[in-house]
Task: inverse folding
């Protein structure tokens, strides 16, 4: 815990970060994570900001109507 992060938290964050870069099946095989978990991580770690921007746009539209 040199930088204040527990080891398990740092490991999980590293795995989650890789989930956006590697196919779920590779994450599952390499790191012994269940394939459903790897798939969920991949969905959550997607690089698209479309959902976030749409939500912001919806809030702004509601604000001015």
Result:
């Amino acid at each position: 815990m040199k930088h204040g992060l527990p080891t398990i938290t740092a490991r999980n964050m590293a795995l989650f970060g890789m989930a956006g870069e590697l196919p779920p099946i590779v994450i599952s095989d390499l790191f012994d994570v269940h394939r459903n978990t790897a798939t969920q991580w991949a969905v959550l770690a997607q690089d698209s900001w479309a959902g976030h921007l749409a939500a912001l746009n919806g809030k702004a539209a509601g604000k001015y109507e």
In short: Residues 28 and 37 are 8 Å apart (CA to CA).
